[in-house]
Amino acid sequence: MSDIPRRSLETLVLSVLGRAIAMAGNVVVARVLGPAGKGIVTYALSILTFVLELFCGQTSAIAYQYGRRGTPLRTVYGAMIKVLVLLVLPISAGITAIALTMKGQGPLIAAAAALPLAAYVQATRGFFLADAAVRAANIQALVAPATFAVAGSVALLVTHGSLWVLLGVFVLSYVPATIYTVRELRTLHAQRAGEPVQDPVRNQLVFGSQVGAVNLVNFLNNRVDLFIIIFVLGVKAVGVYSVSIAIAEVLWQMSGPVAVAAYGPISTLSEPEAAKLTAKCIRNTLPIAFIVSIGTFFLAPPLVTFVFGQPFAEAGYVARYFLPGAIAWSAMYHINTFLTIQLGRPQLVLWIQAVSATICAAVTLALVHPLGIASGAIGSSIAYIVGTTWAVIYFLRHTGLNPLELVAFGKDDLRRYLALAGWVLRSAGTAFAR
Predict the structure, then answer these.
(1) Within a 10 A sphere around the Cβ of 415, how many other Cβ atoms?
(2) What is the pLDDT of residues 208-221, one digit of tens each?
(3) Among candidates 271, 37, 296, which has minimal Cα distance to 162?
């Protein structure tokens, strides 16, 4: 647990770096292809992300088998490959059929082609998280989007490639991510203490499908507004709206580093200790989300216009509507891990996400014609606040913790921040001395 602040900081640095690279790539796409082209790219990538949420369930199943139950890595890995073959091939074939037979769905070919390697990279993330290999997990998550942003920008600016060339680069960006993953898996512990799962393939299918369903609904909770906007207002509107979403995702990432660093301990500690750690993570991320949201409120409109251009100016103002929900949702990362991995209750998270997604869809549909793309951000914020409130109430009732433990800093928190600051200063001094 003492390493969590350092791992969180490292994760934050890599996360910010990845977001910065991805944002630079988004700027190039927006400037070269315009709102319509940006909307098409966003649509294709969103479909792939939607499907990958299913394999996020397998990520959790692998973390449970390998981390909490101590099933040997080789056994879990072999089961993972079998499950991937069972799921990836028919899903990829289905997406390809839609792309070839339905008008305007051609870009989905890229999603189908990228799925095999993307699913492999996503599923294996469970090994790194369970083994507390946070740096490897962070780099693994960075490789594909960074490759796509850099290589895609070169393709558009230097070789003047088309939209289809850009989508081809997107597919190939998962090759280096896969190579890195295979290499790093060899460095993990082959055997861990615990009672191994008897039928890992079935367990990954059952447990993974339950968590995958939660993640799919969570994705709808995060993206149902986008799909409503694309079908009601068109790809040009969703191209502008995608910039607002990108800003909101930066805010969501404020709690992501702590969640990644704490994932292993929350899943392996005793329930009372895991509950206290979850509360500590929440009270340390809420202030960060609040402060960053204040800065975003004032800076987003002028920066979006300056960076992306006048056609995307509305996105900066729409991003403001995401802020209340982003602050609330920053607590959900940690509670989600506690409920899913520590308690083994993904069904509860599924219900929370389903209600949130329903609220988001209803509000967006009700407001999309009078308010345009702002309807999605408003619906998202309302949904996130309701979902987080539900999760927090259940968490407090189940654990018996005092609500103040979610918001009130203690001496131990301050001591860890001082220790982290000292470590940063020492590391910086060592780097400069070299």
Answers:
(1) 10
(2) 787 777 777 777 76
(3) 37
89 vs 14: which has the higher pLDDT = 89
pLDDT in tens, 281-338: 888 888 888 888 999 999 999 999 998 889 899 999 999 999 999 888 888 878 888 8
Q: CA–CA separation, 361 vs 373, rounded Å? A: 13
Q: For residues 222 and 372, give the distance between their C-alpha atoms in angstroms, rounded to a whole number.
A: 17
- pLDDT, average across residues 1-15: 62
- CA distances 27 to 35, 97, 149, 243, 297, Å, are 11, 31, 10, 9, 20
Of 57 and 415, more confident: 57
C-alpha span between 73 and 62 (Å, rounded): 9
Nearest one of 8, 5, 2 to 254, comparing CA atoms? 8
Taking the C-alpha atoms of residue 143 and residue 180, their distance in angstroms, rounded to an integer, is 8
Enter the tokens of residue 392: 């927090």
Q: How far is CA 337 from the centre of its chain?
A: 13
Local structure of 38: helix, strand or coil? helix
What the block records as the tokens of 121 is: 């990279």
Tokens describing residue 255: 């709690």
**Single-letter code of the amino acid located at 83:** V
Q: What is the pLDDT of residue 420?
A: 45
Ranges 24-33, 44-53, 262-271, 284-293: which has the least confidence: 262-271
Both tokens of 160, joined, read 């003047």
Which residues, including other chains, have CB under 8 Å from residue 210's CB and lie 6 or more apart? 57, 346, 347, 350
What's the predicted TM-score (pTM) here? Answer: 0.68
DSSP string, 299-350: HHHHHHHHHH-GGGHHHHHHGGGGHHHHHHHTTHHHHHHIIIIIS--HHHHH
Residue 159 buriedness (CB in 10 A; 0-12 / 13-18 / 19+): exposed
Contact 65, 204 (CB under 8 A): yes
> For residue 198, what is the DSSP state?
S
pLDDT of residue 177: 95
Write down the pLDDT at residue 143. 93
- CB-based contacts of 142, cutoff 8 Å, min separation 6: 14, 17, 18
What type of residue is 72? P
For the chain, give the number of residues.
Answer: 434
